[in-house]
Amino acid sequence: MNCGRTRAVSILFAGSVLVAGCGGDDHFKNETRPPVPVQLTGVVTDRAVQISPNKVGAGPVIIVVSNQTNGAHTLTLEGNGTTDTVGPVNPMGTGKLQQTLKPGSYSLKAGSQEATAVPIEPGRVTVSRERQSSSNDLLLP
């Protein structure tokens, strides 16, 4: 009988030491989450690249661009020290750029392998101060 009690006390002691060792560390500090990603849409036509909305707060951005021309185009997002490229995007296809943008001005260019008589005007995006943290938003991944 005494052996059973000693074993039970030993297991209880080991369990309490294990539980006491958890959670006393700043390693798992509750830091603020980044803002919720904003999705922008764009379209490439024979004349220009259009982006909507063209003004957004700083933070994660997803830009989905549809190529409505007859040729394939490489899409390049440039500005504020950032360069991101996708493509070539085929005619009637879509391309997606994901980036965390800082405040500043950005351009989205559509280039192609072929020389064109009239270049496609780049689209512009203005990024203002950082958006609010998503720490208090529910049902986010």
3D architecture notes:
Helix content is about 15%, strand content about 45%. With about 140 residues, it is mainly beta. It has a domain at about 40-130: Cupredoxins -  blue copper proteins (Immunoglobulin-like), CATH 2.60.40. Strands 1, 2, 3, 4, 5, 6, 7 and 8 form an eight-stranded mixed β-sheet that branches. The chain is elongated. The mean pLDDT is about 80.
Number of helices: 1
Indicate the mean pLDDT.
82
Helix content: 10-25%
Integer-rounded radius of gyration: 26 Å
Q: CATH-wise, what's the superfamily of the domain at 38-130?
A: Cupredoxins -  blue copper proteins
Element pattern in H and E: HEEEEEEEE
Question: Based on DSSP secondary structure assignment, what is the total number of beta strands?
Answer: 8
Q: For this structure, what is the CATH class of the domain at 38-130?
A: Mainly Beta
Low-confidence stretches: none
Query: Oligomeric form of this entry?
Result: single chain
CATH architecture of the domain at 38-130: Sandwich
Strand-pairing-aware structural class: mainly beta
Based on CA inertia axes, which overall geometry fits? Answer: elongated
Main β-sheet, in a few words? 8 strands, mixed
Distance between the termini: 52 Å
Give the strand content: 35-45%
Question: Do you know the CATH topology of the domain at 38-130?
Answer: Immunoglobulin-like
